[in-house]
């Protein structure tokens, strides 16, 4: 047993221990290596930890002796307009260390700790769509997830004995905090950031007696973690470049709030919460005392979120963390479920890309689950090693491993050097109509037949899985196109897109595309989907009027995925109008007429077209 007591003003220490193998590798061997640990310089703080045989911090403190404090931290914003700076409530759990010993912090801020007000009403989605009367000018360039409260004992019980402090906060406008929950804008982010500022001597905190309290027990090194909304706040805080934030671990988190409640100009709900919007979410989490003070904020949000056009505007731009990725100083460990239809996969994909473009230290875990963390058996080891590395400076080799861990459909794990897969090629596949509402998909362009058209009729009350079924037969409410039976597995990695040449018999409609795998018995498995308001033909921030009966080319993305279509199955593309689970649901009957030979689907396929051709 080796106890390490080291000054943070030192640059390195050397320690021999057994190195944990790459998580999920089939031959999880260990080896003894001398490791050099680089500790961030933060002054003359002293820390005290022990490492086990796997080279991770081991429990040397007890939860029974843990020091627990409840404080109010002063922020820099007045979100409720009462003339007083907002304060956020925090609960600190830290080990009872020897005098002079300091510890880093694992920090989770949440709007959910006081529960949710489920009495707040959702918007009605069984409504007619809104057509713009003229070309739009746009509003310039400047979701939340309905998870329940997290198990708040998990972080403290695990990390406090291992030499970390854990802070659990209530974001502005929730629980014991003051202010109003502004759903991801700078005020909510500033309220979250204030805790990190306090830990580094740049903000004030007070106990229940109103006495100022100082964080002299911490190194100032902070790692943020959380899932859903709790993971979205770290994304926003990281873009401030706040001093002391060394790493964030966002799990199924939002990178742009527009893409949580909208898609290409269409009003689109998070999975399972039809009729939710930013203002509804504010109503859910408005659990502070005297919550009526936030009604004007809700009223303004209803106007600004703009369910009429669905356009990207200044309201959404203020909640787009992609705008400020270049400010990030912290490392980022991203985790997301490939089957998450609440916080959809576009959120991690665009975040991951932006992090890479800005040379942010990063890793990615993608799992086969939905709205939650990866399986605990491997994930808990990864997050432990991650915090050890970034908060204690323990050189455990984690940054020398492949950046990406992906759980495949059979629940095995594979590693990749990046995502999308480095061998993924943008591959255009071409459509051809061959019957009333059915057709085929080809790897090479097909002869142009501009007069061969197919029509579908909007059926907003019919679910997508019903419309995707029975692909070889006609269904008036959808169009379906199929590849030949695949002769080998096809690995799709990235963002599928669709481009259709079509006319609409009304000035407004929903457009939906499904990417489906059909097995040998024609059982349908919807892999991913995407939506568009055709009035946003040019951009998400500008609706224009479309002329009924006139042909346009409509292009939109589906949700990103990493999926292997099995040999012996077929890939299908299903076109429909409204999507019962996600889009607004008008009265129906709208006719969309497609020219298949001038339409295509674009898939990111490892190996490209040759794989689809069986070569």
Which features does this protein show?
11 helices; Rossmann fold; 16% helix; 615 residues; alpha+beta; 2 domains; 31% strand; 12-stranded mixed sheet; disordered N terminus; Jelly Rolls
Trace the largest sheet across and list its strands. Answer: 10-9-5-6-8-7-11-12-15-16-17-18
CATH class of the largest domain: Alpha Beta
Largest sheet: 12 strands, mixed
The portion of residues forming beta strands comes to: 25-35%
Mean pLDDT: 90
Q: In terms of per-residue confidence, which ranges show pLDDT below 50 for 5 or more consecutive residues?
A: 1-44, 137-152
Tell me the domain tally: 2
Number of strands: 30
- End-to-end separation in angstroms reads 58 Å
The CATH topology of the largest domain comes to: Rossmann fold
Task: Explain what the structure shows.
The structure is a single chain. Helix 5 (278-285) packs antiparallel against helix 6 (295-305). The chain has 615 residues and is of the alpha+beta class. It has eleven helices and 30 strands. The protein has two domains: 3-24 and 50-125 and 144-322 and 333-416, Rossmann fold (3-Layer(aba) Sandwich), CATH 3.40.50; 424-612, Jelly Rolls (Sandwich), CATH 2.60.120.260. Helix 1 links the parallel strand 7 and strand 8. The radius of gyration is 26 Å and the shape is globular.
């Amino acid at each position: 047993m080796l106890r390490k007591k080291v000054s943070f003003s030192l640059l390195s220490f050397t320690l021999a221990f057994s190195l944990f193998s790459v998580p999920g590798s089939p031959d999880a061997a260990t080896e003894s290596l001398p490791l050099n640990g680089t500790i961030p310089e933060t002054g003359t703080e002293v820390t005290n930890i022990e490492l086990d045989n796997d080279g991770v911090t081991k429990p040397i403190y007890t939860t029974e002796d843990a020091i627990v404090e409840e404080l109010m931290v002063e922020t820099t914003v007045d979100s409720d307009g009462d003339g007083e700076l907002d304060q956020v409530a925090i609960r600190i759990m830290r080990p009872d260390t020897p005098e002079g010993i300091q510890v880093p912090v694992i920090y989770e801020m949440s709007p959910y700790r006081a529960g949710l007000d489920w009495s707040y009403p959702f918007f009605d989605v069984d409504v007619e769509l809104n057509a713009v009367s003229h070309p739009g000018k746009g509003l310039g360039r400047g979701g939340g997830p309905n998870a329940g409260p997290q198990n708040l004992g998990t972080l403290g019980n695990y990390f406090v004995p291992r030499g970390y402090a854990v802070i659990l906060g209530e974001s502005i406008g929730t629980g014991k905090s003051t202010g109003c929950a502004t759903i991801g804008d700078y005020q909510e982010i500033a309220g979250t950031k204030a805790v990190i500022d306090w830990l580094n001597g740049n903000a004030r905190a007070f106990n229940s007696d109103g006495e100022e309290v100082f964080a002299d027990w911490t190194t100032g090194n902070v790692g943020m973690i959380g899932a859903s909304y709790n993971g979205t706040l770290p994304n926003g805080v990281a873009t401030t470049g706040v001093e002391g934030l060394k790493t964030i671990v966002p799990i199924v988190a939002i990178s742009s709030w527009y893409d949580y409640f909208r898609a290409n100009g269409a009003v689109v709900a998070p999975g399972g919460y039809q009729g939710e919007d930013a203002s509804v979410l504010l109503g859910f989490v408005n659990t502070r005392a005297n919550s009526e003070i936030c009604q004007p904020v809700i009223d303004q949000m209803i106007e600004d979120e703009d369910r009429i056009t669905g356009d990207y505007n200044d309201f959404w731009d203020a909640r787009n963390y992609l705008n400020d990725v270049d400010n990030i100083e912290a490392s980022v460990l991203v985790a997301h479920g490939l089957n998450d239809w609440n916080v959809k996969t576009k959120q991690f994909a665009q975040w991951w890309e932006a992090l890479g473009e800005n040379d942010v230290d990063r890793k990615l875990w993608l799992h086969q689950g939905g709205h939650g963390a990866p399986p605990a058996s491997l994930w808990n080891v990864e997050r432990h090693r991650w915090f050890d590395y970034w908060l204690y400076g323990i050189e455990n080799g984690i940054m020398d491993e492949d950046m990406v861990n992906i759980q495949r459909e059979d629940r095995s794990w594979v590693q990749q050097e990046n995502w999308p897969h480095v061998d993924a090629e943008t591959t255009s596949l071409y459509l051809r109509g061959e019957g009333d509402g059915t057709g085929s998909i080809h790897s090479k362009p097909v002869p142009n037949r501009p007069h061969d058209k197919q029509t579908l009729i909007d059926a907003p009350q019919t679910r997508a899985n019903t419309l995707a079924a029975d692909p070889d037969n006609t269904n008036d409410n959808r169009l379906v196109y199929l590849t030949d039976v695949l002769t080998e597995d096809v690995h799709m990695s990235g963002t599928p897109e669709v481009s259709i040449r079509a006319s609409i018999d009304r000035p407004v409609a929903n457009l939906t595309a499904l990417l489906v795998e059909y097995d040998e018995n024609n059982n349908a498995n919807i892999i991913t989907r995407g939506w568009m308001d055709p009035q946003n033909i040019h951009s998400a921030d500008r609706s224009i009027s479309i002329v009924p009966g006139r042909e346009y080319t409509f292009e939109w993305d589906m949700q990103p995925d990493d999926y292997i279509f099995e040999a012996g199955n077929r890939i299908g593309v299903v076109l429909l109008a409204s999507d019962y689970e996600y889009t607004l649901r008008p009265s129906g009957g709208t006719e969309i007429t497609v020219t298949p030979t001038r339409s295509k689907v674009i898939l990111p396929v490892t190996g490209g077209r040759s794989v689809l051709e069986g070569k």
